[in-house]
Structures
1.
Amino acid sequence: MSFTRKDLLGIEELSAGEIQSLLVAAVSFKEIIERNVKKVPTLRGKTIINLFLEPSTRTRISFELAGKYLSADVINISAGGSSVSKGESLLDTAKTLEAMKADYLVVRTPFAGAPLYLAKMVKSAVINAGDGAHEHPTQALLDLFTIQEKFQQIRSLKVAIIGDISHSRVARSNIWGLLKLGAEVTLIAPPTLLPIDIEKMGVKVRFKIDDELKKADLVYVLRLQRERQRGGLLPGLREYARLYGINSSRISKKAMVMHPGPLNQGIEIDDELAYGPRSLVTDQVTNGLAVRMAVLYLLVGKK
Amino acid sequence: MATKKMLAMDSSEIKRALRRIASEIIEKNNGTNELAIVGMVTKGVFLGNRLVKEINCLEDVAIPMGVLDTTLYRDDVNSKNFRPRVEQTEINFDINGKKIILVDDVIYTGRTVRAALDALMDFGRPQCIQLAVMIDRGHRELPISADYLGKLIETRKDEQVLVAVKEIEKEDMVYIVKDKKKSVKDGK
Amino acid sequence: MNLLIKNGDLVNPGKPKLNGKLDLLVKQGKIAKIGENLKAGKGCQVIDATRQYVFPGLVDLHVHLREPGHEYKEDIASGTKAAARGGFTTINCMPNTEPPIDNRSVVEFVREVAKASGVIRVVTTACITKGRAGKELVEMADLYEAGVRTLSDDGDMVEDAHLMRRALEYAGMFPLTIISHAEVAGLSRGGDMNEGFVSTKLGLKGIPAAAEEIAVARDIRLAELAKARLHLAHLSTTGSIELLRTAQKRGLPITGEVTPHHFTLTDEETVGYDTSTKVNPPLRERQDVLACVRGIEDGTISCIATDHAPHAGFEKEREYSRAPFGISGLETAVSLAFTELHLKHKIPLATIIAALTINPARILALDIGTLAENGPASLTIFDPNLKWRVEPSAFLSKGKSTPFAGRELTGRVSSTIYNGRLVYQFD
């Protein structure tokens, strides 16, 4: 069990063993973030560039803190102020960043596949922090970590993922990760929010909330982008909330709930559940730090 | 096997050394007040546990014991010594004002102890830190020395010192291990 | 200059008796004689074509030459050189230039530039609608007089079904053949690749097969209503080819083409997000590739066209969703047809060469694509034994993007002769 890659681009390409070694490492880092002095000198003298070409606060802050807790120097480049938004090509960006000799490049982009392109172009370790509707591997790792922490074991766990699967990189990464670690995954969404042939990944698909949801040990609620009702994907948010909104009466009494945040309260999940004792939402945020520290640590010096 | 093992300490020698170190600790610190032991992953943890027991036999007090992994404090994180596994650090007591006895099996260059000192400082401000090791094999690269020592053994750099413990190797022994191929290369 | 091509194996569609081991004597740009054991006269250059095939000069029905307007992607000089390297002696360029080829003066401009800087023959398709805007018909009579024989808004479909009907009806009287770019924009908009399991995995927006098939069905029905000829460009799906097959069975004068990339590659190529796999219509699935092959085999698809659509390197070196559709196809087409269709799928060479010569020539209403005495000496010599690896940097086209980079192909053009002149020779 080890992790010897240069980059972390997606969960699809990882083996179950690689995922487990990342999760095991994260346990030690979680201990560090619970200390009074949340800082170790491990990555002293290393530079992390957070290249965020799409608005994101949570993931960026999480990577920034993870880097700082490991004593790395962290620089943020975001879409608004960068030349990238002024039409600079990805190739140019890659060459410039390469010349800066950053050790890590954390990339968030609206374009699926862009981190892979950068990884081929630069020597830095590239970490995909979300690319279009493709993957968001560190989100899946922190979710898997949270699930393992709560349920001890992922094998045979019944997980329902509900919401906009089509546009969700979180869903894709989690489906790969959960299946690789042996969970049983059911997707619940209207046909308009399910990408074609998704069942070929090895998941069950349901269009409506039914007994499958009641059987789930864990209900993973996805964020609904409010603009989805344009483009004919949904008649409206009200109908969505009525058909797919999660509250405690719709799920098993023992089930836990997760959400990648930020929440649309009252649409995809009700407040009481989202902030109640069965919610793992805040654990997800804390574990995100531990997992990202583990990822940074395990990619160090892989050239 | 291409290696040669030479016995350096047997189990009774180890036991006697631990007992002696335990009493030296009590003597030097005027008892067990504010005393705590922190064992360094991996072998230092087992030796630390034994010291806790020995002190308990002598003074009838249970002093707190912690576990410290220095991986994240090492100065060679980039090199081929990179350790992908990070063990858990567990120090479940407040180290502020404590007299910490840091325990490891072997002291060599001193770099691991340096890392351990940094790590301990991140947990708080102990009254003092003292170092107990079973073997000092020389070749120090930093100005660090042990306060309590089992045995001083002169070694060559191409040799290794193995402190075997019952919990892992099923026996308490100290060996000097020599790679035979290397010896041949050296003209022996 | 006189030229004798000796010992070649002639594959000559349309002239069943002039096939097999025959020599060709070329004088003053024309074929003076085809026969056995011809002798070279004084000062006659001899090309030894032993163990090689001799084809009529290849005809490509569907090429984007980018001039005028986008000369940084390709121009007529570079595009025709690339075509000659690919064995083509006549290429038909699509009118989505800047300005678009929607009136006589642009047609004449292209012809003049081709005469001055092109190494082979260039003919043009003109737009169906002014400015390719899908609103008003072009002046067809004027274009016909200027030599245009085909019309297309290629790149976009004529969305207004009524306008398409009138275009088909009106074009029929000259006659001009309408070439349909079959793509319902409402279904394909924003899409990057075929819609299927691969697009789902990659998180890229898909273009469903239905976007093409609905358009194909509409245009077949409109052509029938208008009693017009119709040619369907770059078909890519099982359903489209089946619709064409059914229409032909009903006796409708409708033809279709496929590209080498559609009869060779599937959407699995897109894994890795290499933008050289981004083409429109997109690479489809295994069964669609096989449908393209079957279509060529049974004659439903009568033409192989490259849809050569070159772009500058910096345009393709981008995120997949931001890169333009299109690849450089001229310099790999005939080798792909030989390797994939003939060697792998065992389609007779005569069928393949007809789809690259006489069949597209007929759609262009050109009396070319076959070799005969006193006919023009445009021909392609092809070495079927040569194995080579596709090296984009060696392309003569300005567009270097190809999904076949590094692929080993069997058979390669060794010489291209246009009107008696050697315009390409492999060395």
2.
Amino acid sequence: MPDKTLTLEVVTPERKVLSEEITSIIVPAIEGYMGILPNHAPMISGLEPGIIKYKVAGKYKKMAISGGFLEVSDNKASILANTAELAEEVDPKRAQAAKERAEQRLHNKSGVDLLRAETALKRAIARLRVAGGDQH
Amino acid sequence: MASVSDIKRRIRSVKNTQQITKAMEMVAAAKLRRTQGAVVSARPYSNKLEEVLSRLVASSPDLKDALLEVREPKKIGFIIVAANKGLSGGYNANIIRSAVVSMAHHRDQEIGILAVGKKARDFFRKRNYKVEGEFIGISDIPKLSEAKELADAVKAFYTEGIYDEVYIVYTQFITAMQHKPKTKKLLPIETPQEETGGELDYIFDPSPQTVLNQLLPLYLTNQVFSAFTEAKASEHGATMTAMGSATDNAGEMIDKLTLKYNRARQAAITREISEIVGGANAQQG
């Protein structure tokens, strides 16, 4: 019997990033990472900036997203993200620079919006992890 | 009557103009194609977003959010999306006229304008409207971050109670030749009322309320973004059409001038021959 699959679709306002048959997915939900398997109950969940891991043909692939939504229904997982980048699309230098900038801001706490700096840091870290093939 | 060399000079000048308008037409056509691509690739996202929002509202209708709150309108914000430059036929004039008409419906309320594009800003500022914000640097293919900047500003104005309603006036893109000025209510957000095929029992994580609070700003940004992309696509379309007809007109003018040039040349030759013949006859006689 073939493996059960669900369709993963990742869309951003600028393009459709991905549409693939997968066997499982792990997403950064608001209250922590969450795994979704085929035949999941219908669900809508908010997502934090972080890494999406999805399994295709027994192998995990990764993608960095900067927050958004997940909708699951009828064996179809749709992710609406502001931005989404596959591992090979991430620019590690830019992400590294963004990370340092955000850290600097958090460190100084000088009148900047702390929440924004924190989100920026999360985004940068997610990108770096995806690009670096880090096993987290 | 214009001399032969005068006509020749005119022809050359019109040809130069034609070259420029032709180049502008082609540039606009290339930009139009890319923007049209952006309009199309934004569609799955907006459809999905609307779908999720309508499901959410259908499953739990009594949720609250600052962006849904309906107030007695005392002051209304108008976002008017026009271009930064002219040479696009009636594009700017049409959108500005339509904005003036829309604002006339709200004569009893105070009105504040957020102008997008230099043309909108200059027009309304010159006529002493209250221009309370301006967004000039929208790229030829709008970026999400540009839409977000405006959406965030509008959101702040709304939640602080400066505006009680916000409308956006932009040009809807139908085809390259066909665009329509449109006024859309942006805030308070009117949630889409679609029938959701078979009421699925959704789990909301962590709660419907949190999801809604997170979803609405995205929805707002996306509405602004799609207005921007459609307006830009219309602008490129209008420029393309205007420059296309300018090129055609220049061609027509060149044809007419060439005919005139040939006639003048012919007349000069005929005159010369008749002078020579006349001279020869006089000598023989």
